[in-house]
C-alpha cells in the first residue's frame, strides 16, 4: 500500500519576469518576458511529490477568489487530495512577484494573504488526515505556531516530520526536537547554527550544531555543490548532476518533495538524497515553479 505524504504549507500565484539581470533599488529593467504560474513552497512541494507518484494530502489556506479557486483545481488535476484546503473569507490568496536573470538567479517578494491565517485550529480540523500520514512535510511560509503545533501532534503519533526551514528564521528547540529531518540551504543552516556554510567542512560543522538541538537527520542543500547529509554520526557528501541552470526558483521545493517520495518508497536517506538531487537538477533547466517540476517518467529515464 502506498504511504501517505502530508504537506502543510503555503499556496501562491507566482508572477514571474525573466530579464537580462535583476534590477538594483530604484532601477527599471526593460525587455523581460512574463509568465504567471501557481506557486508557494507548500504547493510546489506537494505538486513535486505528486508528479513523482507520491500519495499526497495538502493542507493549506487560500482566499475566496479566482486565484485560490484556480489553484485548487490545478492541485486536483495533479492527483493531490485537497479536502483540507480551507478558504479565508476576508483575505486574498497569496501572491509572489519573482524576478529571474539570465543565469537563473532570482529575487522574490511575497504577499502572504490567506497563508498567514492558516491556524492551529485549522490543523485540529485536519488532524484525522494528518494521523493517517507516514511523512509530514512543512515549510515556514505559514505561521510558526501552526508549524509547531502540527509537528507536535504528528511526532506524538510516530509520523516522520520533515521541515524545510524556508524562509530562513530562528527556530525553537521544542520544534527541532519534534523533527525527524530538517532540510536547510546554506543561508538557513547559518541562521540555525551560527556557522557560515561555504564548503563541505563548514557544512559539517553547521550540521553538528543543528543535530545537537535534537534533529535526527540534517540535510544541507548547497546548490550546484550538492547536499551534505548528517545521519547519526555519519556524513555523506552527495554531488548533483551538472546542468545549465535557467531558473533556480523551485529547485529546493523539488528536492524536498522528491526526498519525501523516496522515503515513502523505503529508500534509505542516502539514496533518497541522490534521487532528490536528480529531480532538482531537471527543475533548474526550466522556467517557473510548478511548471518546471519533473514527472516520474523523466526521472526513470535518467
UniProtKB/TrEMBL annotation:
Q: Which UniProt keywords apply?
A: ATP-binding, Carbohydrate metabolism, Cytoplasm, Kinase, Magnesium, Metal-binding, Nucleotide-binding, Potassium, Transferase
Which reactions does this protein catalyse?
A: D-ribose + ATP = D-ribose 5-phosphate + ADP + H(+)
Q: How is the cofactor bound?
A: Requires a divalent cation, most likely magnesium in vivo, as an electrophilic catalyst to aid phosphoryl group transfer. It is the chelate of the metal and the nucleotide that is the actual substrate.
Q: A GO BP term, please?
A: D-ribose catabolic process
Residues binding K(+) are: 247, 249, 283, 286, 288
Q: Which residues cross the membrane?
A: none
State the needed cofactors, names only: Mg(2+)
Q: How is its activity regulated?
A: Activated by a monovalent cation that binds near, but not in, the active site. The most likely occupant of the site in vivo is potassium. Ion binding induces a conformational change that may alter substrate affinity.
EC numbers on record: 2.7.1.15
The domain of life is Bacteria
Q: Which GO terms describe its molecular function?
A: ATP binding; metal ion binding; ribokinase activity
| Gene3D superfamilies linked | 3.40.1190.20
Q: Which residues bind ATP?
A: 185, 221-226, 252-253, 277
Question: What role does it play?
Answer: Catalyzes the phosphorylation of ribose at O-5 in a reaction requiring ATP and magnesium. The resulting D-ribose-5-phosphate can then be used either for sythesis of nucleotides, histidine, and tryptophan, or as a component of the pentose phosphate pathway.
Its quaternary organisation is: Homodimer.
Annotated protein name in UniProt: Ribokinase
Query: Which gene produces this protein?
Result: rbsK
Amino acid at each position: 500500500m502506498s504511504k501517505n505524504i502530508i504537506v502543510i504549507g503555503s499556496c501562491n500565484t507566482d508572477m514571474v519576469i525573466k530579464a537580462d539581470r535583476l534590477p538594483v533599488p530604484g532601477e527599471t529593467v526593460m525587455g523581460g518576458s512574463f509568465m504567471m504560474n501557481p506557486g508557494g513552497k507548500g504547493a510546489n512541494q506537494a505538486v513535486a511529490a505528486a508528479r513523482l507518484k507520491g500519495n499526497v494530502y495538502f493542507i493549506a489556506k487560500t482566499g475566496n477568489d479566482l486565484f485560490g479557486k484556480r489553484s485548487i483545481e490545478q492541485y486536483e488535476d495533479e492527483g493531490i487530495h485537497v479536502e483540507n484546503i480551507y478558504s479565508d473569507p476576508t483575505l486574498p490568496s497569496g501572491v509572489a512577484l519573482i524576478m529571474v536573470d539570465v543565469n537563473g538567479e532570482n529575487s522574490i517578494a511575497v504577499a502572504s494573504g490567506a497563508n498567514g491565517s492558516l491556524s492551529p485550529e485549522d490543523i485540529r480540523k485536519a488532524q484525522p488526515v494528518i494521523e493517517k500520514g507516514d511523512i509530514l512535510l512543512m515549510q515556514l511560509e505559514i505561521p510558526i505556531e501552526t508549524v509547531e503545533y502540527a509537528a507536535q501532534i504528528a511526532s506524538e503519533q510516530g509520523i516522520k516530520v520533515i521541515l524545510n526551514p524556508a524562509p530562513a528564521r530562528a527556530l525553537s528547540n521544542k520544534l527541532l526536537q519534534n523533527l525527524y529531518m530538517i532540510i536547510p540551504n546554506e543561508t538557513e543552516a547559518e541562521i540555525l547554527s551560527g556557522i557560515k556554510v561555504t564548503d563541505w567542512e563548514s557544512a559539517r560543522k553547521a550540521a553538528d550544531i543543528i543535530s545537537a538541538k535534537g534533529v535526527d537527520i540534517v540535510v544541507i542543500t548547497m546548490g550546484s555543490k550538492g547536499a551534505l547529509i548528517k545521519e547519526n554520526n555519519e556524513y555523506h557528501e552527495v554531488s548533483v548532476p551538472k546542468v545549465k541552470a535557467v531558473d533556480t526558483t523551485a529547485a529546493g521545493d523539488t528536492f524536498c518533495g522528491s526526498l519525501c517520495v523516496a522515503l515513502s518508497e523505503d529508500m534509505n536517506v542516502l539514496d533518497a538524497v541522490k534521487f532528490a538531487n536528480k529531480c532538482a537538477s531537471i527543475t533548474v533547466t526550466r522556467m517557473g515553479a510548478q511548471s518546471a517540476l519533473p514527472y516520474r517518467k523523466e526521472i526513470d529515464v535518467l
